[in-house]
Amino acid sequence: MFAFSTTGAAPSPDHVTPRRDPRDPRELPAGLADRVRPTTPVAGRTLPVPAPLAPLFPSGSLRRGTTTVVSGQPGHGATTLALALLGAASAAGSWCAAVGLPDPGVVAAAGLGLDLRRVVFVPHPGTGWAEAAGDLLSGVDAVLVRPPGRARLTAARHLTARARDRQAALVVLLEGAGSWPEGGDLALAVGAVEWEGVGRGHGYLRGRRAEVRVSGRRAAGRVTECSLWLPADSGAVATAESPMANGAGTDQAVVKQQQQQQQKAVEGSGTVGCDLVPRAPRGGAAG
User: Within a domain: residue 103?
Assistant: First the structure.
C-alpha cells in the first residue's frame, strides 16, 4: 500500500511545474511502476507437487490461478490424490486449506507429505462450503474443496474466478455423484484400482494401485493415462512401474505363481494332487 503526502505549502503562482508530454517515455509517475508490477513474481506463479505427480501437469507443477478437478468413486484414491497435490506446497512453506472433508485423516495426510502446521481444515462447512472456500482463497496459496453434491454453476464460476483473481490454486474433489459444471483447467480421473498385500484370506493391505486419466484445457489437447500408488506401502504417493493389464493385479499374479511352484513341488516329491496320496512302489502293492 502506498501513501501520498498532502501536507506542505501550496506552490506559488510564479513556480508552476511544466506539464510533461504524456508521450514522453523517459519517466513514469512516482509509484506507478510499483502499482502495475505483478503481485506474484514469475518464479512464484507455480506451486510444487510431489515428484510422482509432476508428469501429470504440463509445467510439472501446480499453477496458481488455475482449477484442478480430481474425480473418482469413493474408496478409489481420489481423496488421497487430491491431498497429495497439497503436500509439496505445504512442505515448501505455502499455506493450504481443505474444505468439506469430514474425516480428513490427519495421520494419513502427514504421510502424504502435508505439513499440518500450514494446513487449515474446515471439515463441516455445511451449506456454506462455497463461501468458506472463497474466503480462504483470499488468504492461502491452495484450497482443496469437496462439494457435498452437484455444485451450482454460480458457485463454481465464483470460486474459479476467485482463484484466478487471487492467484491461488483451486483443487476440486468429486466423489461419487459429485459434479463440477464449470470444468477445470486440468482434470484427473481415478479409474480402476487394485489393492496389494492381502493374499488368500491373510495379510495386510500395503498399497493401492490406481489408473489416473489426465485431460483438460491445460493438458495440451492430449488425454494421457498413468499408473500410481495411492498410496504406496510407505504411505506416500509413488509411480507404479507398470500399468495394470486386463484387470490382473499383483496379488493374483503372486498367488498364481505360488500355486504353480507348489504344484511342481508336489509332482517332484512323488505325490499326486493336493491330498498327498503316496504312489505305489513299482512291482508291489501299496502298504
Answer: yes
The number of domains in the chain is 1
Which of 164, 189, 163, 195 is closest to 174 using CA atoms?
A: 189
pLDDT 10s digits, 224-237: 889 999 999 899 99
For residues 107-141, one letter each, b for 16 or more C-beta atoms within 10 angstroms of the residue's C-beta and e for the rest, the string is eebebbbbbeebbebbeebeeebbebbbbbbeebb
Q: What is the separation of C-alpha 97 from the centre of its chain, rounded to a whole number of angstroms?
A: 13
Domain that holds residue 105: 42-189
Residue owning grid cell 505549502: 9
- Nearest-angstrom CA–CA distance, 287 and 270: 15
Answer yes or no: is 114 within a domain. Answer: yes
| Model confidence pLDDT, tens digit, residues 38-92 | 444 444 689 999 999 999 998 899 999 999 999 999 999 999 999 999 999 999 9
pTM: 0.69
